[in-house]
Task: inverse folding
C-alpha cells in the first residue's frame, strides 16, 4: 500500500512548488485519505518540504497509526492545545497554503491567530486536480464497487411487485449491497415510482408501485472509499408511447455521448452531443442541465461534464454519463453509467442491463 501514496505526495509537492507554496494544510477528509490512507473524519494533514504530519486526537490515534502511510501521526490534546498552536509546531518557514473550501471563517481566524509567523494563503483544488486522474488501484476499487452494485440490482429487481413501496425496495437495495461487501452506500439511494421519478434527487417514501409506473433507481456501492454511481429506469408493465419515446431518447442521448467519449474530447463538447439528441426530440425544457461528473472518493468530483467546464478529458478520468428527461406530469427517465476514459475511447464499468419493461 505504501507504493500508491508515494507518487501522490510527490505530485502534490511538485504542485505546491509550482504555486510557490512551502507548506500545505489539508482539511478535506477525502483529500487526506487520498494522500495518506487515513479514512477517519477528525484529522488534519500538514505537508512540508520534508515531512508529513497527520494530526488527530485520542479517538482516532491508534486507527490513524494503522491506516496512514508516510506520515508522523500526532495525537493532539484538544483541551490543552488549540489547533493553531499544534499546527505551528510542525510548519516549516515560508509560505503556507490552506484548503479554504473546508474551513469556516471563524475556524480559520482562530487557527491563523496562532500562526502569526507564517505567510498564509488560501488555496483551492490542488489535491482535487491530482484526484481527477485515477491510478490503477483506484480504478480497481471503483470497478469492484460497480460490479457489486450490478449484482445487488439484479437481486433486488426480483422483488419488484405491484404494491411494493419505494422505501422498502430502497432499503432492500442498501441492505443487499452491504451484505455483498460494500463499505456502505455511495449516497442516499434514490428510488422513485410514477410521477415522483421526475424528481432528479427525490427521497424514497411510502408510495406504492402501480401498473405502468416508471421506476427510477439511482444508487452506488463503496469499496476502499471509492464509489460507484448508476441509474436505471424501468416501467412496470406495458409502457405508453410517450414513456417509450422518453426512454428511447435518453438512451440515444447516452449512446451518442458514449460514442465520442475518449481522451482529447472536451467536457463541453460531450455535453453538447447529448443535449442535441434530447433537444431535437422536444425535451429541451425538461432535460437535465449537465451530462455527468467525475467519480472517486467523493460522489461528485471534477471533472464535471457540463456547458461551463473547460477541461479536456484524458486517460484515467472516471466519469458518469447520465442524460435525463423529467416531465412533472408523467415522470422522469435517467440512464447512468460509470466509464473510464482511455486513449481510444472508454471502458464501461457498470454493466447492469438497460432493459426498460418490468412485469
Result:
Amino acid at each position: 500500500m505504501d507504493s500508491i501514496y508515494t507518487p501522490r505526495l510527490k505530485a502534490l509537492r511538485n504542485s505546491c512548488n509550482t504555486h510557490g507554496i512551502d507548506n500545505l494544510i489539508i482539511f478535506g477528509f477525502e483529500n487526506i485519505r487520498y494522500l495518506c490512507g487515513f479514512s477517519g473524519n477528525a484529522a488534519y494533514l500538514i505537508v512540508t518540504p520534508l515531512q508529513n504530519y497527520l494530526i488527530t486526537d485520542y479517538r482516532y490515534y491508534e486507527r490513524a497509526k494503522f491506516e496512514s502511510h508516510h506520515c508522523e501521526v500526532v495525537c493532539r490534546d484538544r483541551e490543552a492545545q488549540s489547533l493553531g498552536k499544534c499546527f505551528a509546531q510542525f510548519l516549516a518557514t515560508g509560505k503556507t497554503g490552506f484548503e479554504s473550501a473546508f474551513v469556516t471563517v471563524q475556524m480559520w481566524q482562530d487557527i491563523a491567530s496562532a500562526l502569526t509567523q507564517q505567510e498564509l494563503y488560501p488555496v483551492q483544488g490542488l489535491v482535487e486536480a491530482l484526484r481527477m486522474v485515477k491510478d490503477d488501484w483506484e480504478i480497481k476499487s471503483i470497478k469492484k464497487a460497480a460490479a457489486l452494485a450490478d449484482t445487488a440490482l439484479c437481486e433486488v429487481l426480483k422483488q419488484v411487485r405491484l404494491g411494493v413501496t419505494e422505501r422498502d425496495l430502497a432499503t432492500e437495495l442498501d441492505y443487499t449491497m452491504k451484505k455483498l461487501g460494500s463499505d456502505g452506500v455511495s449516497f442516499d439511494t434514490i428510488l422513485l415510482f410514477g410521477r415522483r421519478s421526475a424528481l432528479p434527487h427525490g427521497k424514497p417514501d411510502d408510495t406504492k408501485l402501480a401498473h405502468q409506473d416508471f421506476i427510477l433507481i439511482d444508487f452506488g456501492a463503496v469499496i476502499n472509499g471509492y464509489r460507484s454511481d448508476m441509474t436505471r429506469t424501468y416501467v412496470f408493465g406495458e409502457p405508453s408511447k410517450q414513456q417509450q419515446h422518453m426512454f428511447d431518447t435518453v438512451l440515444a442521448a447516452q449512446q451518442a455521448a458514449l460514442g465520442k467519449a475518449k481522451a482529447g474530447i472536451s467536457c463541453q463538447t460531450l455535453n453538447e452531443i447529448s443535449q442535441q439528441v434530447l433537444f431535437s426530440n422536444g425535451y429541451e425544457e425538461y432535460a437535465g442541465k449537465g451530462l455527468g461528473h467525475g467519480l472517486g472518493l467523493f460522489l461528485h468530483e471534477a471533472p464535471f461534464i457540463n456547458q461551463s467546464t473547460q477541461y479536456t478529458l484524458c486517460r484515467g478520468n472516471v466519469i458518469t454519463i447520465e442524460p435525463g428527461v423529467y416531465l412533472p406530469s408523467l415522470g422522469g427517465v435517467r440512464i447512468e453509467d460509470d466509464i473510464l476514459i482511455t486513449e481510444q475511447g472508454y471502458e464501461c464499468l457498470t454493466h447492469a442491463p438497460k432493459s426498460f419493461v418490468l412485469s
Remarks:
- The domain at 136-358 is CATH 3.90.230.10 (Creatine Amidinohydrolase).
